[in-house]
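User: Teach me something about this protein's shape.
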Amino acid sequence: TVSFIEELKQYADNPDVMEAIRLAILEERETEENSTNQWVTNFIMTNPVVVGVDGPYQETYDELAAVFYESGKKEYYSSVLEKSSKETQAAMAERAYKEHNIPCFSMTVQILTAEERLQYLEKSYQDNQTAFFSILFSDLAGNEQTSYAYRAYEDDRKDFFSIAVESLDSYQCEALAKRAYREGKKEFLYLIPGAKDDKDF
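Assistant: First, the predicted structure itself:
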């Protein structure tokens, strides 16, 4: 079943539009079902809703990715990027990072490899880009998240610590809170769950 938003209901009676939608859905489902990307397979389309009718376009998926990125058509960008080449996906991720385009970066990195995502995570830490770091941090295993929490503490990177500290268990929080108190790092102490008062120590 395909649904239309109110403004586009007139297209439901247009056989050419409906055929184009049918073919697009079949192509999208085939892409999703054959994907090895967990983010894609976790969100396989089941009840499509038509929110826009545009085109047809003569450009390739690679070309359209750049066109929609530049025009700010995020829904279109996300759709064509999944069908673009690996080279284009990597290039668009790099461009979005350099241009600080957080919405498009978030869409793009979802279809990169796990290794590429980890590289951007480390890059964002080195570049002091907390917004990008927060997008990618949940990819890490628990012990890797914990390592970043301690690393951010050692490096005096309070913004990153505030993201990573949630990965610490209660015992780790208690030990680190005592350490922060001894070392006079109150700006970190107050970010540690359960350590809101100097009197605790």
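Now, about its shape. The chain has three domains: 1-53, 59-126, 140-201. Residues 140-201 form one domain. If you'd like, I can walk through any region in more detail.
User: That's plenty for now, thanks!
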